[in-house]
Design a protein that fits this description.
Layout (H helix, E strand, L loop, with lengths): L1 H5 L1 H11 L2 H28 L5 H4 L9 H16 L3 H29 L7 H40 L3 H37 L6 H28 L3 H5 L3 H68 L4 H47 L4
């Protein structure tokens, strides 16, 4: 049991309670529920100008989300398209930025806490969170455009270049691959957007390879949680019996909570990995300091011996011999200084290589401990 709590899953379980991640996910969900409807209105207005049926894009989500969520979104979009107004558009332009900003701001604060970083300067944090609030809806728009236009673009290319039966067959194969590959492309867009938000949350620039584990974990967990939750709702849960007409909204609320928790846990995983990297670095620095101390003690002993020998030689030494000895001593000091600098540089390189090696081993085996 002790080894489990020392592993990554065990540490994440501990931090879930100690950092109160459930409550933080609920806070993020609160702002997320107010974000989704203004964003739906904005998407409806944007793609409506292009004479595109937004509801067609929802067909690809039927295997991932519960039918009750799809029904709520479809009903809301139908209402928006049938009764557009300037007041609604004004509401959309304001709150499609404000509420996503609150979502991203809440997420970024939680990620900073996962890394053990103090609150960032207010103005700087607000500017970063605004950038993140623009990136997330933009990712959603790009994903929708990709889902809607991707098939049409492929069909257009196939129609132009397909001259014989073999080329037509190849075009159909490409179209079939796209039907499944578009979900991978959507996941990649979300991966990049989430990585940018994670990076904006922290002080300084973070290397992409240090953010990737949490990003991948968050996206995979989100997809799996959505699929499992959809299967559970469609086959076992009876929210309509318990909550009546609010059943669909309760399902949407629970799914948004799972979404928030998945993204928060991704940042928590990156924070744990960062802490392990710091622990490895601290241990390597401690060993290096011990070696340095041993070298200094050895050097001090040698200097003392040299000093004793010099005292004996100076007693019967001529001026010419004294000058020669000084010249040789300066050469020895310069050579020794250069040698120590090379040793220090080599030691730093070895520390960095050892930290990277231990971290890679830890990342690969962390979930198997």
């Amino acid at each position: 049991m002790k080894s489990f709590f020392q592993s990554l899953p065990g540490q994440m379980l501990i931090h879930y309670f100690t950092d109160d991640l459930g409550t933080r996910a609920a806070a993020t969900t609160y702002y997320l529920i107010f974000s989704i409807f203004p964003l739906l209105i904005l998407l409806s207005f944007l793609v409506g100008r292009l004479d595109i049926d937004v509801l067609q894009a929802l067909n690809g989500l039927r295997n991932v989300l519960p039918q009750s969520i799809i029904s709520i979104i479809e009903g809301y979009l139908n209402y928006v398209q049938e009764a557009p107004s300037k007041t609604m558009l004004t509401f959309t332009l304001v709150f499609s930025i404000y509420f996503p900003w609150r979502v991203v701001s809440s997420l970024m604060k939680t990620i900073r806490m996962s890394y053990g970083q103090p609150p960032a300067p207010r103005i700087k944090f607000i500017l970063k969170s605004i950038v993140g609030a623009i990136i997330m809806p933009l990712t959603l728009v790009l994903t929708l455009v990709m889902f809607v236009f991707g098939r049409n673009v492929i069909l257009f290319i196939i129609h132009i270049f397909s001259q014989n039966a073999a080329e037509q067959f190849a075009g159909k194969m490409i179209l079939q691959i796209w039907n499944y590959g578009r979900f991978g492309c959507a996941g990649l867009l979300m991966f990049l957007a989430l990585g940018i938000v994670y990076n904006l949350s922290l002080d300084g620039h973070q290397k992409f390879k240090y953010l990737a584990p949490g990003n991948i974990f968050a996206i995979v967990l989100w997809i799996l949680a959505s699929v499992v939750f959809s299967f559970y709702v469609e086959n076992f849960a009876k929210y309509s019996v318990i909550y009546g007409t609010l059943g669909g909204f309760i399902v949407l609320l629970l799914w948004l909570y799972l979404t928030s928790l998945s993204f928060i846990l991704g940042g928590e995983l990156n924070g744990l990995l960062a802490q392990r990297r710091r622990d490895i670095r601290a241990e390597m620095d401690r060993r290096q300091e011990e070696k340095k101390k041993q070298r200094e003690e050895k050097t001090a002993k040698e200097v003392q011996e040299i000093t004793e020998n010099m005292k004996k030689r100076l007693a019967n030494m001529s001026i010419e011999q004294y000058e020669i000895m000084q010249r040789d001593l300066r050469k020895y000091v310069e050579a020794n200084r250069e040698k120590e600098a090379q040793k220090k540089l080599k030691a730093e390189q070895q520390i960095e290589e050892e930290v990277e090696k231990q971290f890679e081993e830890m990342t690969l085996t962390g979930f198997q401990e």
